[in-house]
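@channel sequence for tomorrow's demo:
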Amino acid sequence: MWATLDFEASGLSDQSYPIEVGYSLPDGSGESLLINPLSSSDVWHYWDDYAETHIHHLSRREIELKGEQVVEVCQHLNKVLGKFEFVFCDSQWDLFWLGRLYHAAHMRPSFTLTEVGHWLQQENGIERASFQLALEAQGPTKHRAMDDAHQIRLAISQLVD
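structure tokens (generated this afternoon):
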């Protein structure tokens, strides 16, 4: 049993932080949570205007108003994803943002997030390029966390189910 997880972030830099997290579960259900950067115990100020206007289309104001508290997001993820043997992401960035999220909440995840390319190679002998092709076959990514997590799930299923 496995699930997939994806983040959207304030940008692509070492100063960036998660602004949305989404997951897809084995039954195809999922959820997406906006993350309020003001609720972080760390200082989260970095904002990439290009990411807002060309990638995820979420404004800083929107996530401040509609976002969940960092601790609540971590508690929710632990409750939902902690029961899965594997939780996969498709980028090293997602591993970075997961660490940043839990650090800001002074918590630890109850699950291990694994970059899918590494797992496919190690456990199944499948090259990352095959995963990329399966992912591209799902159509363009929407750059919204739950939608992208669902596409990752479908691509993995094509290769291993």
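heads up for whoever presents: The mean pLDDT is 96.
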